[in-house]
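Whiteboard transcription, Tuesday session. T.W. wrote the C-alpha cells on the left side:
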C-alpha cells in the first residue's frame, strides 16, 4: 500500500516531495538523453570523417582548362618548399596545353623573385603558357606616392592608402592575361585562385568537383594555426553572418552547419580560404567581373570589406549557382598546419568533436550578431543619405574596421 499523509502539513510536504522528485527525474532524463544524443552524434561524425577518403576524380576534370591566378609577397619559403612543385604537378596532371599560370609579385624583400624565376623556368620546360610579373614597387613606394583613389583621411590625422583597394588592384592585374587571351579566342573553363598555401593536385581536383561541378565559387578551408581556420575576413555563412567560433563547426547558420557536420559542400554567401575555383564566364563577359573595394566615401564611416567577399556579392552567378565551402579540401599556410588537418579523422578527433559541438551550441544560444550588424547598417544608411545614387550590394561583407597599408604590411586604424 502507498502511505497517505495524515495531516495538512504532511500532505503539503508529500506534494512538494513528489513535485521535486518528478522534476529531478525529468532533469535526469533530459541529461541522459543529451549525453546519449551527443555520443551518437560524435561517433557518427567521427566515423564519417575517419572513413572519408579524398578522391580527386582526375579523369572527369583532366580535360578542364584552368587559368591559375596568384599574388605573392615575401613568400620565398613556401614557394621553394611546396608551392612551386605543386603548381608544376598541377600543370602535368591537367596537361601543359590546358593550363595558364598568371602570377603577380609585389616588392618582396626576401628572395620571392628568385623562387618565382625558378617556377618560370620549370613551367617553361613543360611548355606551360604563363605570365609571371615581378614588380620592384614596394609598400613604401605605394604609400609615398601622391594620393589618389583609395586614399582617405584616417583617425591618425593623415591621408593614408587603404589596404583593400590596393589588394583589389593587384588581384585584377593577375586577370589581365585572361582578358588578352579571351580576345585571341583562347578560352578556359575555370579560374583557380591560389594563395601562398600547401596544396596537392588531389586538393585541386576535389575542389573542382564540389557540388558535382555546379557552383559560382568553391573554396577550400585554410589553416595557419589549427584548429583555428584562417580567413575570417571573407567567410560568411548562408545567412551572411560571420563565424560563431573560429574552430569547427564554425557556423551560426543551420544550413551551413548541418552541411559541415555531414562533410558535404557547405552553402555560404562568401568564402576565399586559401584556394578558390570559379567559372570563367563572368570574368570574360561584356561587363567583366573584377575585384573591388567599397567606395572611399563609405570607408570613411569606419567600415571595410574584403575584396574576396565583395567579388561574390558582385558575381551574377552567386544567386543562380551558389557559393560553397568544401570541407574535404583543407590547405595550410605552412607544412605543419597542412599535416595537422590531414587525414580528416585526425582533424576531427572524438574529443574535439564532442567539445566543439556544445561550445558552438552555447555560443549560438548566448550570443547574437545583431548589434554588430546594426552598427554597419546604420553607417551604410547615413552614407546613403549623403550619396543617394550609390548602393553597396556587399553589405554582408562589411565590418567595423579601417585598414591601411604600411611599409611592412598593413594596420588597423
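and on the right, the sequence the group agreed on:
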Amino acid at each position: 500500500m502507498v502511505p497517505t499523509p495524515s495531516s495538512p502539513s504532511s500532505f503539503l510536504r508529500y506534494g512538494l516531495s513528489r513535485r521535486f522528485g518528478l522534476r529531478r527525474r525529468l532533469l535526469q532524463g533530459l541529461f541522459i538523453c543529451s549525453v546519449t544524443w551527443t555520443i551518437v552524434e560524435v561517433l557518427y561524425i567521427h566515423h564519417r570523417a575517419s572513413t572519408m577518403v579524398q578522391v580527386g576524380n582526375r579523369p572527369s576534370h583532366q580535360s578542364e582548362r584552368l587559368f591559375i591566378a596568384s599574388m605573392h609577397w615575401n613568400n620565398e619559403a613556401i614557394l621553394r618548399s611546396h608551392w612551386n612543385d605543386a603548381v608544376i604537378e598541377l600543370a602535368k596532371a591537367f596537361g601543359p596545353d590546358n593550363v595558364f599560370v598568371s602570377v603577380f609579385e609585389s616588392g618582396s624583400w626576401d628572395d620571392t623573385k628568385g623562387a618565382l624565376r625558378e617556377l618560370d623556368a620549370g613551367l617553361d620546360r613543360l611548355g606551360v603558357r604563363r605570365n609571371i610579373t615581378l614588380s620592384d614597387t614596394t609598400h613604401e613606394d605605394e604609400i609615398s606616392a601622391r594620393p589618389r583613389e583609395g586614399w582617405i583621411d584616417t583617425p591618425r590625422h593623415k591621408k593614408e592608402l587603404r589596404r583593400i583597394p590596393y589588394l583589389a588592384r593587384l588581384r585584377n592585374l593577375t586577370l589581365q592575361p585572361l582578358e588578352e587571351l579571351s580576345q585571341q579566342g583562347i578560352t578556359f573553363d575555370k579560374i583557380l585562385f591560389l594563395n601562398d598555401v600547401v596544396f596537392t593536385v588531389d586538393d585541386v581536383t576535389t575542389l573542382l568537383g564540389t557540388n558535382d561541378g555546379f557552383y559560382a565559387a568553391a573554396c577550400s578551408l585554410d589553416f595557419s594555426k589549427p584548429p583555428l581556420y584562417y580567413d575570417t575576413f571573407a567567410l560568411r555563412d548562408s545567412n551572411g553572418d560571420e563565424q560563431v567560433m573560429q574552430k569547427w563547426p564554425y557556423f551560426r547558420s543551420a544550413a551551413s552547419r548541418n552541411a559541415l557536420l555531414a562533410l558535404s559542400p557547405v552553402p555560404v554567401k562568401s568564402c576565399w580560404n586559401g584556394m578558390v575555383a570559379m567559372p570563367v564566364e563572368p570574368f570574360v563577359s561584356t561587363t567583366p567581373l573584377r575585384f573591388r573595394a567599397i567606395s572611399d566615401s563609405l570607408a570613411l564611416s569606419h567600415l571595410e570589406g574584403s575584396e574576396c567577399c565583395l567579388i561574390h556579392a558582385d558575381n551574377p552567378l552567386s544567386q543562380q549557382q551558389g557559393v560553397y565551402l568544401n570541407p574535404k579540401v583543407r590547405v595550410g599556410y605552412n607544412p605543419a598546419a597542412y599535416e595537422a588537418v590531414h587525414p580528416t579523422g585526425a582533424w576531427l578527433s572524438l574529443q574535439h568533436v564532442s567539445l566543439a559541438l556544445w561550445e558552438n551550441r552555447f555560443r549560438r544560444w548566448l550570443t547574437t550578431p545583431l548589434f554588430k550588424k546594426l552598427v554597419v547598417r546604420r553607417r551604410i544608411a547615413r552614407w546613403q543619405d549623403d550619396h543617394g545614387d550609390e548602393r553597396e550590394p556587399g553589405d554582408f561583407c562589411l565590418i567595423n574596421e579601417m585598414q591601411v597599408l604600411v611599409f611592412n604590411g598593413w594596420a588597423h586604424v
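Someone added at the bottom: The first strand starts at residue 66 and ends at 72.
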